[in-house]
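Order emerges. As here.
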Amino acid sequence: MGTLNKEPKSKGTSKRGIHFNPGDVLFGKLRPYLKNWLFACFEGVAVGDFWVLTSSKIDHGFTYSLIQAPEFQYIANLSSGSKMPRSDWGLVSNARTFIPTNLSEQKSISSVLFGLDTAITLHEEKKRQLERLKSALLQKMFADKSGYPAVRFKGFDDEWKQFMLGDVAKITMGQSPNSKNYTDNPKDRILVQGNADMKDGQVHPKIWTTEITKTANKGDLILSVRAPVGDIGKTSYDVVIGRGVAAIKGNEFIFQLLKRMKAVGYWTKYSTGSTFESINSLEINNAVINLPKEHEQNEVGNILSYMDHAITLQNYKIELIKKLKSSFLQKMFI
């Protein structure tokens, strides 16, 4: 998608390939749907399945924008080969396209799209920083074996106490209804079974059911008890819980604590099965956790919830800019 995932200076230049200069455009012809392209800002050698595109008549930035446009992508993906498809230069080089004769218009188009790329990159970096900060807080704001967390809000100094999860939160194991009662009618009760029905920590409706077995209410926590064991989310709906999940009535602190348990691999030692890992109700209920007093639970839960919200908002901005860029690529080229 136009960015390097390795530092090019760390790689040698002894291999043979196609020489390119700053401003040239590299297009990966192998599996073109992967969108391996780069606007080069350094001199180098393109090794492997790359085309190096350069022109004395067209602004290089416009060329870089052009290869991302739907019309070019359509032609480039008319590839040959099933396992290792490659773009066909015969088709691409003979495809006709419209290009502004005014160089200033070419540069204006590329400037807008480069600006959107820059905005996406900056927001993605901010998201990564937020995620790293959230990960650090999950490590530092919960008590270790000493009974005290490494990072704490001012005014709290009591030792955290040990409990079993089942002593502080009601846990309900899922039981799937008969498949003959599954529907696609949103008026029926949403069915949650397995991690496939959750995305980004939220339940996403896929199947409904007319049979009410075990249930969870809006705001309850949903824990995956089958691979990937320990994934945790919330439901914004009243749902029926099926095989593969458990419902937990817990506050924001418990939710964040379960996220941490997943991150540190707590459930790995309990999950069983060589081909299909799972944990049972006893292991969930008997999970040992450290808890502070309620007021500190609220403070910890609130700050971590705020971080989640900031990350979600950042991701929303990224997707919004990507949609804007996609729209421009549709409308700024003939």
About this structure: The chain has a mean pLDDT of 90.
